[in-house]
Structures are given as C-alpha cells and as structure tokens.
Queue: 4 jobs
Job 1
Amino acid sequence: MLWTKFLIPTLKEIPQEAEIKSHRLMLRAGLIRKLASGTYSYLPLGLRALQKAERIVREEMDRAGALEVLLPALHPAEIWKESGRLEILGEDMIHFKDRHGRENVLGPTHEEVITDLARREIHSYKQLPVTLYQIQTKFRDEMRPRSGVIRSREFLMKDAYSFHATNESLDETYNVMKEVYKKIFTRCGLDFHVVEADPGAMGGSGSQEFILFSEAGEDRMVQIGHDGPVVSVEMTARKLKNLAFSKNAPSGKYYKEYTPGHSSVEAVAKFLKKKPSDLVKTMIYGRPDGSFFEVLVRGDHEVSEFKVGKIEPGCFMASREAIEKMGFAFGYSGPFGTNLKAYMDEDVLEMHNFVTGANIKDHHLLDVNPGDIRSDDIQAGDFRQVVEGDKSPDGQPLLFKTAIELGHIFKLNLRYSVPLKAHFLDKNGKENPLVMGCYGIGVNRILAAAIEQRADEKGIVWPKNISPFQALVTALDPEDAQSREIIRSVLDSEALAEKGVDVLVDDRQESAGVKFNDADLIGIPLGVILGPKNLKQGKAEIKIRKTGQITVVDIPSLVPEILKALDNLS
C-alpha cells in the first residue's frame, strides 16, 4: 500500500480535547476523528488495527468451538422489563419511541436478546452446551464521555454467551474462556492481569476482569499488601472497628435548611460551606420483590454495591420514579421518615453534626447525629468502597492502582433464564432453566490499551499482531529508480505475503524529517529506510520502532531480514 494512495491525515499539534495519551495519539496519527461527544469515525489506518484485533478475537473464539451470530442493536424495551434491568441501567440506556409509539432501546449489552433467542431455539439437553458470540456495536448514554475510545457512547464489543444444563458444565466453559482470553490478550501484545471482580448489573456469581494497569484507566484496583492479590475497589474488604448502631439519646440539635437547586454532595457542601466528608449520603435501593431499603455512607465515600449485594441479592439502584412514588424528593434522600431498613457504613457512626437530605425538595437537615436517626432496623458494617488509608481485614496496606478493563467474564447462572423463562428438557423430560455464562471484550479498548502501555514520547509503538501494517518502507527519494525497484520487489514478495506481512510505503515528496517523524508517530513496528548513501553501496536500513535499533542489510537479503526481524518482535 502506498502512502499517497492511503488516507493518513497526521497532525503536528496536540488536540486540545484529548486528555490521555492514547486519545492524543489516535487523533494525531490519523486513526480516528471525533464526530460528536463520545462518538468517533475510524479512518483507514485505525480501522485496519481494529480489524486486526477483531481477527485475533474471532480466531481464538472459533478455535474454542464458539459459534458466531449477529444480534440486533435495536431492542424492544419489553424484553428489558422482563429481566428487570430497564430500571437498573436507567439513564445509561438510550431510549426512544418509534412511529408506532413502541419503546425501544439501543443495546448497551445483549443478555436479554441472546436469552430470548435461546428460549426460542434451545429446547433439549442434547443441544447443550453451546456458546454463541458476536462482535457488535453497543450504545451507552455516558454522562461524561472521555478518554477517547476507552469511554465512549458508541463502542465495539465481542460478547459471548454459553448455555448449559448444569453448573459443572458452566464451570468447564468458564475456565475454557478464561484461557481463551489469556491467549487473545497475549497475541495482542498486552501485559495484562486477571482479577476477581464484581458482577455488578450483569448479575450472577463468579466474575473476573482482565485489566491492564494504566494511569489512563478508569477502573480502580487494589493490591492487598505489596505482593498480594489484585482486587477491584468494589470487592475489597477493609478492617473495621466493629462498631454497632445503638439508639443513643437524640441530640435534638438538627434543623432544616433551605438548599435551593443543590442536590449533589459537591453542590450542597459548597453552598453550606462544608466539606463532602461532613455530609451523609442516603442511597435507596430496590429488591427483586419490589420492596426498598437504604444505604448510608459518608459524603466523600461511594457505596459498594458488591458488599450490599452480598446481603441483599439482586438489589438495584432505585429509579427516580420509584423514589418519588414513595413520597420523597429525588436528590434529597435522607434517613428520616422512610421506615426503610437501613445499612449504615461504620464511618457514619463516628460522625457528629453532619448534613443529610430532608426528603423534601430543596431542603437538607444540618447538625444531625447518629442518635437522631430513629429506626428499628439499622445494621452497621462495611458498605462502602475502600479508600486510601484503609487496611485489609488482616492489617495489610491497600495499594491503589488505576486500570483499563479489557475483558470481563461472568457466571450468570439463572439470572436471565428464570425471568425470561428460557427452559430446556433434561434427560428425564423435566423442564429446567438454562444455566448461563457471559464473556465480554471491549475491542476498541484493545487499541487504546496497547497505545497507553507501549507508546513513547515520539508516538505509537504498535504490537506486531494488531499493527495496521507490520512494515513501513520509507523512500527518501521516491523518484529514484533503484528505490522504486526495491519497493516493487517488497510489495510483490510472496514470502512476505505468505507470512501475512502487510507493507506500507511512504512514497510522499516530503523531507526526511517529516517522514521520520510521521513514521515514529504512526508506530509501525518495523521500518525499512531507503536512503541514497546506503543504496549506492547496495544496502538498506532496517529500524525497530520500539528500540530504535538500526541494522544495515544487503538489498538482496532484504526480505529475509524483514521476516527475521519481525519474528523477534512481540
């Protein structure tokens, strides 16, 4: 492929909108262009890299016996109501009504759709186990899209779903998929880790994330001690003082304050000239049976839905509609007058004269103390995510790291098959719900993660297997007859074609400096430089992008030397 026949609009300036390295370099190298907040067009160079990652994913999934399907991106809302997740995902979902007044969803994930397909097509144990997968565009109405393609409103995912007659069969496939994921990310040239994780809104039991440590990551991970396991922030337990809620005499100090238009912790704290740690958040959750409960945490802390979910299985954040139906003002929730069971994080017990919501629009309560909260049903414990300074239950330090989530595998068990009535007949003719597993990979994120992990101050450094091209031939004088002959021999090389080596040729009439800078920016792992001085001696240079190492080789042996150099690259 000739550069002059390809669209590679590189940028010299750093785009102001880009905050992280991968976003900056994907824009500067001409891989992507922004259409709107959280949505990107992939240009030819970026699409080639994306397709290389897709191919690796497909090859490994096919090798494991999974069957590829393609599911609709447009879902009827009814199927999400069946599973009970329409409210759980709430405003993250993109809803709209069609011309017939039917409510639809642009799919953020496909558990409901694949379960609907299974309940229609899988009827007997003889069809099990089976694993179906797709590579499909997903949509989420992110409040603040950021970090380029790492957190966008439209993204590409590989999601697979396995169906089983027994938990033992699910365990077998789950372990197979775990190994498949290791192969995929290894082939993509990534240095990754496997960590225990929270299933979250996906439901089910067992769950593991495949992560890559990076300052650009949005997942926070915790290493327990200096050489202990890595666990998600949601799941990490902390050392408690074992305090319990007691009905101390009320202080009688608290009073109602007008806080017009201020509902978030940050806004209320600023308005009242307080710190977020002076507030207590009251988060209301729903149960599968339609009842509700509340969780109280300090204003600068976050609820751990994993920890809460261990006590209240299947719980989910209550919707605005549900909260208002109970007679409370959304955004101003507090622990007074609700008569709901409450889970109070231990830190709240040590607070004095704090601020809570008044359950009345535009109002908060000030100078509240734990003894003021009159409830017959409060349980104290560990209900928040860990923070800096916490220790593990056995006293080890908790070390915080940021990470990019590459993939996630789940044991869904009966989470979707029961509410959607996806059943099969066993050997005895008895009807049972299908046992399910789920396995997702963010394909776009593979590219961004590779750039974050491997790029240097000059630009991208692609791993060999997902690079848009494996070799870049730079002709300093593209009109030189000898250079043109060498280029033709490289492009026509059967040896390179047999090994799947894609070659890009920089045939532009540009200065050597421009060409070298662009070569470093787009990050092709191996460069071949055709310069007049070496050509006169019948030689060419081979340059390794990652190390900058240059080897001068004889032109007749150029192709074998290219193959040899590529064999040594990761």
Note: The chain has three domains: 17-72+108-235+399-452, 255-381, 469-567.
Job 2
Amino acid sequence: MAAGIGIQGERKNGALVASTLLILSGLLVLAGVFSAARPALAQAQLDCPLPDGVTPPAAPPVTASQVEDGSASLMDFTLAVRDQFSQGTTTPSPLTLYAGCLIRQEGSVYRSGSTYLIQLRFDGRVFVHAKDMSLSGRQLRRAIYAGILDALGISRAALTDPAETLDALEEAATGDGGPFDVPGIPGASGHAAVYVSAKFGSPVVLLAGFDLNESHLVEEDIVHIEPDVTARDVVNRETLKDFVTQAGEFFLALAQQQNGDMLKAKNALRDPNGPWRHGPVYVGVTNRDTNLILFHGGFPDRFELRQAGISVDIATGELIFDQLIEAANSSSEGGFWEYYFDNPADAFDSAEVPKVGYARIFTGSFRRRDGSEFPISFIVNSGFYLSPGGTGDLVGALENPGSNSSQSGVGALWGWVCDAAMVEIEIETAQGAVEPYMAAYGMERLDTQETCGDTDNGFVLLFNWNRLGAGEHTVTALVDGLELGRAMVRVTTVGEGADEEFLRGVEGECVAEDFPYMGQSTRLEWQQESQNFVITDVE
C-alpha cells in the first residue's frame, strides 16, 4: 500500500502536518468557549441532539440572522465567531461535537440564509463548508484564494511557499481580516479572518458571506491507487472485508504521511469515477475518540462532521452507530453486522432489503508542528445491500411481473442486474414442472447508471402467458445461477383446447366507463398478436 499512496501528493515541510489534520478532532474546538447557558433555536436542537449533561452553548454576540436582517455586518459576525473559535480548548468534548453540528445547521445562530461559515486550510483547500459538505476537500481557485489573502494583508507571493503562508496567516490572526470581492468571478465575495486552532496551534482561514459553489473550485485530476478490491467488486462479505481493509489503510497512511493530506484522501474516496465508490457501496470514516463522522461517501451533507449515533435502523429503531461500534470491537480485524438504511442509489428501496456492514478500527499517529506525536484512531466502514432474493451477491431486481400480479396473453418480463454472464427466467408450469428461458441481457437502462456505473444492465424476455395455463405460477430470475428475485403470478386464459395457447379468428371490443377519470370512457379492442385487449380510444 505505501508505494501506491506516495503518488497522492507532494512532500511538504513536516511543520505543516498539524494544519492539514485539523479535521481529526472535530476542527471546531469550541468547548472551552461556551460557558454561559443561552439556549439555541429549538429547531436546531432537534436536528442536533444535545448530549446528556451538556448545557446549550451561548450564542456569539453577533449572529447570522442579524447579518441577514441588516442589523449587523459580515465583519461583525466573522470576528465574533473568530473570537469564539480561537478560544477553544485542546480537548474535544460532547459540547464540541454539539457546537460543530450547530455551525452546519440552518436556523442556528451560525447559519441563516446566505450567511454561513467556510473554513480553509492554509493552502486554500476547503475542509468545512457549512452549506454543502460534498465540496469539502476541494481546492479553491488560485485567483479567489489570492484575493482572500489580499483581504488579510498577505502577499500573493506567500502562496509559493507553504511555510511562509503559515507564518503570514498566524500573523494575520492578530488582525481583523477584511472584505474580499474578486473581480470577474461572480459570487466570490465576503469577509475573511483568521483564527489559530487551539488544539493544533495552526492557522485557519474563516470566511462568511461567500456563497461558495462548484464554479469557485479547481477541477482536479485525482490520481488513485488501485486496490485489489474496488467498490464495484463488493458483492459479498469476503470482498466487503477486503475493500474496507484497503480503504482504511489508504486513509490512515495519508493521515500519517509527512504532508498529512487527508483532504485529498476525501476527494479520492468521494470520486464517483474512482475505485472507492460505486452505486450504494461507499466508505465512511468516524473518529473513534469523539464519534465525529469525518467522512461519509454516501450522504456528506447529511452526516459529515456531525456526531455519529443519531441515525437509527429504519426497521428496528436501534442506533446504527451502536451496531457499528460493536462490530468494529468484535475482533482485531473488525466484524460484520446487518441493518436497514437508506440506499442512496435507489429511490424506491425499502426496509425489506437489509444492508450488510463491516467496520474495522485503524490506529496510528501524526506529528504536530511542534514535533510532538498525536495519536489518531478511526473506524472505517462500508456495506452492500442484499438482493431481494437474499443472495447478497447481486445488485439488481426482477421488476416485471410484480408479485401477486395478474397476467394474460403475450407480455414481457424484465428487470436489471449490474453484472451478469447469463440471465435465465424459470417459470413453473401448470403441471408443476419448471422450465428455464434465456432472457436477452445488456439492454440500455439509463436509470442504472448511478448504481452500476454503466447502463447496459437491462434484461427482457418476451413470453406467452397462455402457455402456462390458468392458475398460479412462480417466476424466478436467475443470474449466473443465483436467484435475483421471484414473483407469484395468476394467469388467466381465454381460449379453450387447441386455442388456449393462441386464440385465433375472433374479434371483440368493449367500453370501460368512467375510466381513467369520472365521465370518460375507454374503448378496448381484442388484438390477436398480443393475445390481449388494447386501448383504441379514450373519450
């Protein structure tokens, strides 16, 4: 692993390690600041549960809503928050995590409308974007960051020397910062200030009023290592374990490197074209000491930099994080568990389809700017969804026929599966025999792009239901011999004797009143080719 990871970034001065690893302990170390008991907004408290025994933090003397209503300036707000952040303690606490959640919560004292906080690393890389955490880890355009440095009174020449940039930012932390408005770049404006992280002694650029979006960021070429098992390869417990192990080693190695480029690791893990994410398979990283979610490949804005332990199993009501912790601690190599959780790649998933998770602990250390060692400990996890058939090896579905549906005439059976050499449809006949039929596979299904990474995943079989005879029958879809899904159907036939399989030489039509809406009528006409009635007119 080490040789492959070395290509992730340039080697930098060892003194820069701490500034790149602020994320490790929650980034927003505010626990020592909030001693007065002033309650936050009720909505924010609901979305950011207050830990037991913790007094709600005091609001800053200037809030985001005051900026929005015009009763305070961006400068007032930025400096008020800067003063709070710079007074943080060196030890994270439950209050630290609660305050970090409030900073990201719309309607809290830290975020209202277009007024929210962004924090940058010394080189202009985003590590906290309170409005959209999916942008965290990305690099700000050089012209924008240069404009921000101008507002802080820092020469643009400092950008060429990381050590000089750090020194200049530390000096700027003693001032009041300033407004920035970069010419020719829409929206690149706001107020900038600097605070020094109490935990790491490293400067952080604090921005407010900057509605940072994709257009303000650099399109980077992400150079990936190639793990033995990629997200696409995860189909069972064995491949899941290998995938999590390699993802954890990758993340930890970057955290311990001399340049400590964990933000670039986040970019790599989030890249939809890389090896670490494919459909519903993604990586999660949680700080073991604080239960802070450092990275979430599936729902970054929903979970990232928020405390784990508030999401529940949608079927059982149990805390998913408790299950994760138990699995991670079950052995030196971690462990598996099954749970029910929203599938980001499937808008129609249900609690009937469980997810198999695997979690493992990774520990190490990195060197602070002053040369001291700081221990780090993560829980890395991932998972895959069992198929409706329960094999755990397939990603796909038998979509038609639906279970307990009625069928007649000539129709199509269809569905999709990400990877297959052969798709067969087994159908039980009226006599109880099971006959296999080969389905055509590789049809274009644009709706499977996000899940499968490609679109040639559809399968279809044209079939005459009359061949089965009237009654109940079972349809089973098999992918390379494994069951993907099954459905029980009720078949109705209209012919008799020799005409039961294919009725010929008859005509017929009828009218369905008050269909599809009251007062309308729909005319149906027998069509021999499809052995069914078709709609010919709606009045």
Note: The two ends are 69 Å apart (CA to CA).
Job 3
Amino acid sequence: MVITSFGIEKEQMEEVLREARAGRTQLPDFQRGWVWDDAHVCGLLASISLAYPIGAVMMLRAGGEHVRFKQRPIEGVVLPTDELAERLILDGQQRLTSLFQALMLGKPVATRDERGKEIQRWYYIDMRKALDPNVDREEAIVSLPADRILRTFRNETVADYSTPQKEYESMLFPLARVFDADDWRVAFEEYWDYKPECITLWNQFSRQVIRRFEQYQIPVIELAKDTPKVAVCQVFEKVNTGGVTLTVFELLTATFAADGYELRKDWEERQRKLKQHRVLREFSNTDFLQVVTLLATWDRRKRAIAEGLEGERAPAIGCRRVDMLKLSLDDYTRRADHVMSGLLRAERFLHRQHLFDTHFLPYGSQLIPLSAILSVLDKDWDAQGNNDKLARWFWCGVFGELYGGTIETRFSRDLPEVLDWLKGGPEPRTVVDGVFGRERLLSLRTRGSAAYKGIYALLLREGASDLRTGQPSNFANYFDEGVDIHHVFPQHWCRQNNIPPGLCDSIANKTPLTARTNRVIGGRPPSEYVSRIQNSAGITPDQLDAHLRTHLIDPAPLRAENFAAFFEHRQAHLLQRIGEAMGKPIETAFVSEPEELVAEYEADEDKVFDEDNLQSVPD
C-alpha cells in the first residue's frame, strides 16, 4: 500500500461539526449508515464533557484525479444543492454523526434503544450531578423522548421537561445549546431570580462542562487527495472502528456514482435474473466484477502485445482486488452484458455435466473463469470439439481440487490458456495440474469436498437411472423427484456387520437416488430392499440389475450382501470414469484390501454414522 502523503492536526470539534453542516465535510457513498444507539451516544457525550479522548478521525482530501467518489452529507444534514465536499470522512463517521445530531441538529435524534427499537431522543446534562465528583458522569447525561416527557409503561407521566421553564427548574441543560449557551444562561438566571447560589452553580458548570465542549479538539488524520484508490480501501478496512470490511463492489459503486452511474441498481437487476437460474443463484457481485476484470485486463494485454509489447512488458491479466479497483466505468459497461451471456452459457454447459443447482456445484469459484471463457467464445462455445475440451478442463479442476483457497492467479491463466487450447495450442495448466490419486477416493465422505460432488454429478452424467423407473435424471425431473446422494449399503446394515465407518461413508458406497427410492431402501439389508424395489416397481430381477449397472454397481455382490466385492468393483469403475472425464487414465488396481487402505484415513469424526438411510433425508 502506497500513500503519497498525510498529515495529522488537532482541530476544534465545533469547527469540524460546522464544516459537516455546511457540506464541506461529507461521507464517501461507500460508508454505511449511522447506526449508534442511545447508550453509545450518551457515553460519547459523557466522554466529551470530561475532556476524555475519543480517538482520531481520518479524512481524505477530496478532488483527487484518480479517486472520485459520490458524496453524501452526514445523517441529518440537508444541503440546498449538491455541495461538493472538501474532505471525506473515512473513519469517525459514527462519532461525528452522533455529536452533530446531539449538539447541532436542533431536533430530536433518531436512534435506537438497547433492543434495537427506533426511538427519538433529546440529550441533556444534569448540572448538579455533573458537578458532583461522586456521581459517574454517564449518570448525569439525560436522554429524553421527543416530547421531553418521561412516562411509565402505563403512559403515566413521571417527569415533564417539555418547556424551558421546566428545564431551568430541574437544572437540566440541553446539550443542543452547548455552542450557544448565553441566551439559555440569561433565562436560567432570570428564572431563579438571580440567586447567588444559582449563578455560582452556572459559573462552575460553564467552566467545568460547557467550556470542555467549546474547547474540545479532535485529532484529524488527513490523507492527501492523490492517495491511490487501493490505499483508501485498505486504510478504511484497517482503521474503521465499525470493524466492517469494505468490499470492492461498494467502493466501485461510489466511484461510478461520481459519473452518474448506479452500479448497485444495475447489479440488483442482473442478480434478479441470475436468481431465476438455480445453478447461478449464488453468484455474487464480487464474482461478477472479477469476470468483468478478467475480460478487461485480457483485452488490455492483447492490445499491448499488438502494439509490440511482449512478455512481462505487457500488462498482466488479473482479477485480484487491486485489479478490480482499477476497473473503469467504460470497462464495466462495455462488458457487463457479455458476462451475463457467458453466465447463461455456463449454466447450459453445467447442465450437460448434470450439475443443476448450487447445492452440488463442486466449485462456485470455477464459474468465474468458465463464464469469462464462454463470454469470449460466443456462438462457438457449444461446438462439440470446444465443449469436449471445456468439459475436460472443468473436470480436471474439480477432481484435481484446484479451485479452493486463493485462486485468482489460476483464473488469470485459465482465460488465455483455455482459449488458446481450443484453437490448437498446448494444454492449459489446469489440465496439466489436475491429478486424482486413487487413494483419494477412500477419503471422500462428505459433500464438503468438490471431488465428492463431482463424482455425484459424474454418475448422473454417465446415466445413473432411477432404480424403480429406469429413468435417468435430467433437469426436468431432478428437482421433482428429489434426487440426492445416499448409501448403497445402508449405514444401519454396515454398523451391524462391522463395516468401518470410513468405508461405509465413502463415496464408493453412495449413489444418486430419488427420494421415493430412498424411502423404499430405508435401513434395510440390500438382499431385502432389492426385492422391495422389484415388487413396488413391477420389474424383473434382470431389469433391476440393468438399472444398478448404470450406477456402476455390480448386482451380484449387492444381492449377496458381499460388501468387499461390491466395494472393489465400484471403486475400480469410479476411478475409470474419473480418468475418462479428466482425460488421464488412473490406476484402478489396489494392492491392499479396502479395509487396510481406509485405515490411514480414519479419524474420530468419521466414526459417527448419520442415519440418512434410516430416514428419508439427504446425506
């Protein structure tokens, strides 16, 4: 992070608040709204009254050439025109807004109580309590409702401070008058008929409390207007007292808004369309910006190479945070519709791989390079040669488990390498790097793994049909039939027959089943449930055997309840199909028995059975 310059000075709190009221100090549009509750406001006012430090405020000098944000005044300020700010608040919004509303707004503060209920409050300070050294200062801060009348829950009046005379009588000073106290003082002394003790009380209160508000200084760190956008983003996240993360989307929303473009409104419309597609519904605004950035930086690099720059001299392709922050409005508007088209093509591609919703999508992140590639391919994306290579690249990423963690660098390689490969170039790094070890099959037990989800989809793609109807799953019946993954040898049977949980819960002992078929199976032994399926479906043993083979299940050991023979056959055939999908043959002959191989993967958490086949619930 590079910050060209910054300074720190102590500034009068009153002047800082007056600048906010005049619109000379505003908020960048990416700042969240004011959220402090009544207790926080009272605590802040108590600290000021004691001249306690409340922390520094950080601002950015406005008018920089490369950092332009849409601006908005702090909560409560109404400007007659779109006044351009001189400074933008990066850190300290909650404190400055609370102080402005309580001390300068001139009307009740709209805040919240401890339960989050919206309330309106005036803030006072009890003069006598404030001067009593034995009273905690926060007890001297009085929060009153909008009508300044305190009531019980039965609406009975407890105390009434609704007129200036009642303020004088109760010796409650309105903090909204703290920077203009003379008129209140004159009326106060007149109300008490200029009694010496009341004048003395006022003088002490003025010296010990009001003067502290008038003279209070706030340390202000000011970043120069030439501070880079990425530095603004990082500074905001590191110093913001709300502890919130500023997303790239929020920062670009504020940046584009300076040119009159409503990025949030544009995204909400695109998101509404994406949510109509099950496999795309969780694609986020940051994901979308990453695809746009990939395409923009790829175009930039191509142009540079065409102009004679080569290798590292040409700008890099990227979609990291720093790359997205450099995205211009023109970059976005020129490519956003193309990205939408790429995403819709990605959905059709995934449907061909029998991935129909986000629930079993191996890597949501792989949608980023996939949609970027399909945005460029346009009408040629579904030509068989292109589609076959895309499928191989996809499955190498899934079974090689290459898209977990920090993977922006892989995205940046995928786009040019896959496109070049489709034109006859070398295999992409993802295809080269994708390796699936046969031992990995034994450790896949939960849907948290991308490879686990991949095998489930691969079985559907290879034609795994419903055991009762013989119908293969497709988009039309997948959701209606409640297809999910379940055990072949039920957990109850495995537990009774001392099958290690690691083998029982392995993906090699699981297969896609409809909800109705799973209910027929229940926790019954295989020899029993195959008969129930035949009888309920009115099919012959040969017909059921044919259905079982579409799941890569050998019917003979299943009917004989020979788990070891079933497992050996199934793992070999699963490995064969995985190798075919990746375009890389996998050795399928295990030198050890399954029980020996699984031992090294056994862990305490794997020894807990989940009773998915005893009830009709997902695995």
Note: The first helix runs from residue 13 to 22.
Job 4
Amino acid sequence: MRLFEHRRSRGFAIALLAFLSLPALSNSDGGTTNTTAAVEVDQSLLREPLFPEQRHENIAGLVAQFIQKSHYNEVTVDDDLSSTVLDMYVENLDRNRMYLLASDIEYFEQHRYELDDMVRSKPLDPIYEMFEVYQTRVRERLNYALTQLDAEPDYLVDENYRFDRTDEPWAVSTEELDEIWRHRVVNDALSLALEDEPWEKIHDVLSKRYTNFLKRLDQVNRDDVFERFMNMFAHAVDPHSSYLSPRNADEYRIAMSLSYVGIGATLQTDDDFVRIVNIIRGGPADFDGTLKRDDRITAVAQGGDGEFVDVIGWRLDDVVDLIRGPKQSVVRLQIIPANAVPGSPKEVIELTRGAVKLEEQAAKSDIIKVPRDGREWVIGVIEVPGFYRDYRALTNGDTDFTSVSRDVKRLIGELEEQGIDGLIVDLRGNGGGHLTEATALSGLFIDNGPIVQLRNYVDVKRNPPQRLDDPDPVARVAYNGPLAVLVDRFSASASEIFAGAIQDYARGVIIGQQTFGKGTVQNLYSLDQYFRSEDEKGFGQLTLTIGKYYRVTGASTQHRGVYPDIALPSNIDTETFGESARENALPWDTVDTTRFTAGTPLDTTIASLTANHVERAKDDPNFQYQVDRIEASREMRNQKTISLNIERRRKDRENQLAKALDRENARRMALQLEPLESLDDIDADEMPDVQLDQAAKIVTDLATLREVDATPAQTAHVLPLKE
C-alpha cells in the first residue's frame, strides 16, 4: 500500500461522505394536498427492510482493528470513543434539530457506551433502529409540511424563521416541531414568491419537493445506513479518516482518474442543499469562473431551455447524476450565492460539460507590472494549483514525466528571461498533492537540507521522525531573488509544507491568510483484499490517518497551519473552514528541531514591508472595497433568523443590492471609472484580484529594499539541534 496525500482525494471524499447525510429539506412553510397518504402507501411497497447484513458486521470488525492497530493516535475502541460516535451519529442525522424529539435523544442514550462493542463483535441492529426512528420522524415532518400547502400562506405576518437551529434545544413535543415547520414551509413558499412565482407554481414546486424527498427517504438501503454510521465512527477518530461503501469507493476511483465528464466541481450535501466544496482546476466550472466555492445548488436544467428540476432535499448521488452528461452538452444550475441567507435571490449559471483537462491543472506564469518612482517593476507570478506528478509515466521509464517542480523550474527560467524583479508563488486554493513534489519544489528555492519531518504510527513511541530532504541536493537553486508565497485558508497539506519551509529558512515572505492546518497523512485500504467472499457487493474502502508532518523547526502544521508574515483580508471564514473548525482534529504539537541552514531572519524586513502595506492600503480603493465586502459577508454569516414578512424581505433584499452597488460605484469613482446602473453590468473579468495586487506591491517593496541594501537573498547560518 502506498502512502499518499492527495488534494482531490480529500475533497472528493468529503463530498461523497456527505451524501450519506440525508438532506433535511429547504426552509419552508406552506400546505399540501391529499397525495400524502398515497405517497406513503406506494413507497412502503418499495421500502427495503433496514437491518445489518453479516458482511456489514465483518467490515465493522475489520475497521475497528485497523483503527486500533494503525491509526496515528493509537486509538482504543472503548466507551469514550463510543460516546463520541453517538454524538456525531445523532448530529449527522439531524444537525439542525428539525426532526428528532428530546425523547428520541433520551432513547438513544441507552446505546452511548455500547457502540464500541457493536463495532467489534456484537450485532449492529441498534444502529439501524436509531436510523429508523429518524426516518419515521422525517416522514412525519414531511407529511406535516405537505398538509401546510392546502392554502397559500399569509406573507404579511410579523414572524421570523430561525433557519439555523444547531445550538437550539431539541423540541420536546410534536406541537413544538409543528410550529417550527409551519415557519419553515412559509419561508419556502415566500422564497419562491419573492421570485414573482404564482401560488399555483409555488404549490406545485413544494409539493414535488416534499414528496420526492419522501420517495428518496424510502430508497435508503442497508449499505447507506451502514456507511453513514461507519463514516461517523471513523470521523470520531479524526476528520480525515473515513469509510466509503463499495458504490462510493467506485465513484472515488472515477474522480481520482479524472476520466469523468461533468462540470469539474466537488459537491457536498449541507442540510437541504447541495453545496460546492471545490472547483476542480482545468474543468468547465474553472474555465467559466462564475460558480464559486460554497454556492448552493437549488435546481438543475438540461440544455439551454430545459425545465429546471428542483433538487433541494435530494440525495447527492442523484444530483450528481443530473449534472453529469455527454461531453459538450449544456447544463444549467440555479444557485444561491455563497454566504447568502435562505430566500436570497437565485442566479442561473450555464455550463458546457467536458472532461477535466490535466494540462489545465499545470502551473502557469504571468507578469504584473508595478509602476513606482518613475520605474516599472516587473513581478513574476507562478500559480501552482496542485502538487502533481505523473507516476505512471515515471514507472514506465519516461524520463520526461510531468511534475509541478519541473514545470515551475521551466517557468522560472522563462520569467527570468523577461527580467523579473521579484516572484510570487501563488498557492491559494491549493489543497496539496504528492509529498515528493512538495520537497522538490522547496528545493528550487532553498539550498540542500531538510524540508519536512514525517512521523507515522509506528514511530510515535519507538523512533524519531523521518527527515525528508531536498531530493536533488546537487542542483543549484533555481531562483534566488525576492520571493513571496501567497496563501489562503484553502492552502493545505503539501502547500503548507512548502510555505512552512520557505518561512523557516527565511527564504521569502508568506502573504495572505492562515492556511488550512492539515498536517496529517492518510493511507487508503481497499477492504476487498481482506475478505475471501463471492459477495458481488464488495466491502468498500477505509481511509485512515497514519502519519503527521512537522516543519524543520519541529512545529506541526496540524491544526494551526502556517501563519502569514503579512496578513491580507479574505472572505474565507477561518472559524467555519480549516482544520481547527473540525471536530476531533488531531492537536498541534512539536518534535525536536532538526539541523538546517536558514537565511538571515527577516523580522526587520517584514516589519518594514508591513508598515508600507498598511499605509498604502489606506488609499487603495480596491483594497477598501474588498474590506467592505468581507464585512458585509460576515454580517450575512452571523444571521440565524429571517423575516417571514414579504415586504420586509423585499426591502432587505433591495437594501443589500443597493449597498453592493454603492460599494462597487464608490470603488469605480475612486478609480475615475464610470459608475454602473446595475450590478448586472459588472464584468467579472475586470474585477481586480486584490490579494494578488497587494502581494505584487509587497514584492516590489522587497525588491526595492534588496536593491538598496544589495544584500544576498540567503545568508547561511546553522541552527543547533534542540536538546
């Protein structure tokens, strides 16, 4: 089994696992028809009895053995873990507390310290029984929602809907849930009414939404329930350990091969909605540039004029099936933009399906020219989307195999031929990749020496961490000029190894946002190889955290990530995203410092660069525009309730759009550009990349200082080993 750590493996696994979290409908309140009973009767005929099969119990026992023997933390499958698993399983069933009653939660308590025994050797029936309680409650809620569609709601009521109930107490009675759901259905209907839809259309859309959800609820099978529970069992150990059923293991392999045709986005269910987790470099969505991370899909249509199919409350795999299609065919997505509250205006995005192009995921270069003091400074930019390496070509003896370090080395040469004064390595959104490439890329900027330390579960108590050095110590440094590394919260794993090494060696300046904080290594185990069986269903796969990275200073990147030397404002919320926002994430810790040769400390230089940046940003219209947008998004994120009065909602929406237009026009007027009459007139291609522009100006400062001081980029001194 090969040790791996791959950008897309992490993202896609998240998406697939989340499909198991049966989505909870959209915000709602309406009324329904007499179709409810018919739906229940019809679907009961199709319902698969939910109980564990023998292979499920065999898999559970094997997973428990792997966790105890091979997990980095030397986990004990005991009552403490069982308690954590129960909490996570219940949260996964009903995170927003819209279905289960307090009495249900009390009933589940009898199993708090039994789940570990079930996984190891006892029957898993209680897991399925708990799911069936949840399934019954969901069915009750949906049937109630359908009854609320008998008459059009009063959109002039002075009430609010609390759409975020994660911190609310469990409802103690059916009557209390009825009131919560009455508000919910009103909000669903109101969201459509704000789009000027007539009641007949609203009634039809919501009836289909709720009845389709009932159908999908009854299509849940034994593997779905088992995967859902086992995934929570693995997540209770750490957020990057996971279990995939045979079906989703196949989907994972398709995604890793990049051979599928679609839009090039990683999806995840988040309560009612399918959310965009990641835009895959080189895919149609990446080329188009309109779809963004955290946008939520509400409906899907085929072709340029096909009818939209409402997908709120759908299973993730069913939504994926709608989005996939023949190459060069058109799919339209109706989305709610990231950070918008429920009921916000929806947007329609049209994409042409296509294969993800590997060549488009390669590193790219560009030039930014910064005019200053009568001179035009030339700053090179190399965007590194991932730490890729063509292992198949390498294994086949191809000496010209593709790798990110080779591509970057070539791009550096091309940029230096153009006479660059400084260089930015842009790692924003780079979730990682191959470890070998992280060390090789670092070696292009650092003289020979250690890049990172790696400790696996075998070494935790017995051996010191393994030191991974520059794989090509004889080669000269490819670039020795002024250097900055641009990062954000989604820069993870291999990106953090590279950024950490550049910072530890004082080779360059780290600019941007605190990085993700994923300092762990996972191994993938295909469970089929451990069973001798003719069962065609298969046994799925386990991803398990078996190692941890440490910087050459001995500090882990786990949980904390890499802190920038100069922080830039970002719309990515660090409290929502990142390792520190995940339950049961492994903690930050340290090991001994390893011997390495670092450059002269940059503390004084960074202080000077920061002072210049802060002073310059005060008068930068684009920078101030970015700050204002971030504050507006923060206010939206903090909102947990929404009015059910249509006039107030219209007014709130108009105010939001007016403020957004005012922000844009204030920026344009400061730049002596013509103001816009509508946000629809904004040309996305003309919008500035504020972080990159600021980084270019900081690197220009760095180049200016170096030119004045005439100092070498790296002055060596040896740090002693930590005692």
Note: Confidence is low (pLDDT under 50) at residues 1-46, 711-723.
